[in-house]
Amino acid sequence: MDFLNAIILLLNYIFIPALTYGSQLALGAIFVTLIYGILRFANFATGDMMSFGTMIAILFTWYFQSLGISLGVLPTALLAIPFAVICMILYMLVIDKFVFKYYRFNKSPPVMLAMVSIGVMFVTQAVVRIIIGPDDRRFFDGERFLIKAGEFKEMTGLNEGLALKSTQVMTIFITVVLVSILFWFLNKTKTGKSMKAYSDNEDLALLSGIDPKRIVLITWIIAGILATIGGVLYGLDKSFKPFTYFNNMLPIFAAAIVGGIGNPFGAFLGGYVIAFSEIFLTYAYKKFFMYVLPASMEPESLVQLLSTDYKFAVSFSILVLVLLYRPSGIFKGKEL
Amino acid sequence: MAFFEGENMTGGYGNGPDIINSCSVKVDRGEIVSILGPNGAGKSTAMKAMLGLLNLKSGAIKIGGKDITKLSPQDRVKEGISFVPQTKNVFAGMTVEENLEMGAFLVLDDYRSIIDEIYSLFPILREKRNQLVGELSGGQRQQVALGRALMIRPSVLMLDEPTAGVSPIVMDELFDHIVKVKRTNVAILMVEQNAKQALNISDRGYVLVTGENRYSGTGQELLNNPEVRKSFLGG
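Output (structure tokens, whole complex):
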């Protein structure tokens, strides 16, 4: 019985939250890796583009709520996603046309484009703060829990409750569907393969008649979808605060690099690697050991390896270790 | 008049100095023409000019009598001109078959039959169809590069040093393949460092020096020309 309790405890506090957080990171990491592979620069505006998309989704959510439209048990934000995606794509295309295109056309070195993306980051950050402000906002409505901890305890008679939030299930489900469609598109369709070819060898792709303008357009469209959905899912699960989104860029970049930058599947797995490491290392295992060890060996401290304040240090350390020992990432991407 | 010709081409890269000076190259269908010459003679530049990779100050490029001087490289691909660069001429992270599919990017109708033709031309590629090209040997990669270029059923195939960096045995094999391609009525223009071997399979050749035509003639003529032998073929 104690052993079961221990498993439920880990599921509840480590496994499910990490799977959710990992999915959110994975979407961001695929976004980073696609931009890096195809447009050839590290996009430092990633976090703020995600917050821009989320902001639009929140504005649409408020609008729908004011009209009295809702999805019942599901959050209204899901209805707002398609509209937010369209606005996000338009925003990205405008930025591309007026900012990135010039440097791409002049074949500027990637580091210059990365610097330019920092400029875009500041502008986007400012736009978001002007429109919606820097505060913490919750825009979740509908049914919060699929299974409540109390109900679970009653049902099973265990000491430990397993709470399953609807946002967690939604995040994992939407991520799996979205990523499956994306990988099918990249690996099986002619357009997807031509994107891979363009990322592999730009000059030869041009010689084969692949149109670079179209590739860039499609890349931004996919990026817009990933950024908005990733951002909204994170915001629904936790809350929307522009600064948090900016901060999330570190684990997102870590995930993309761990997975081998330029390799979308690697980025997807990288998201989970980072999320699980962060949560494994910052969880306090005291209660777990109370269940699995005999009473005499009960730990006195919290048995927490790192305080949760240091969770960014975890992604940073993983990033440094990977760059030192496997610069092309665990799942083989481009050499950095 | 030849099928594909560059007449009196003069130009260089960007705003730099002229690398080729009123240089002329002509090639007909079913013919192999080599461009030879010492390092820095402008061999590759002449070829790139015909592909549209540099702006010409004067001169004209024609294919089948049609003036294509103003067309971009992508539009020239649509005219049936295929190019195999010297380096980075394959998609290393993709499989053999995907490479061929990318070569057929502009082919709108079914290209399965073209892939089969390429496989019968280069049997080894059929065997390795699902392998990543980055994992193949140098000679096999060159076959993939040739195959990719042949996917549009080109009328002109341009090869920039196809045998650079491969062993002598593989070089002979590659030249055999190039002759096979020529028999399918393709005009082949190539730049080569291995002058003797290249002239052996060439119908004609041009020797460029400092961006100008110095000698030209059939492969045998150039091989037997004492001056050409002395300066470029090592006696």
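The radius of gyration of chain A is 21 Å.
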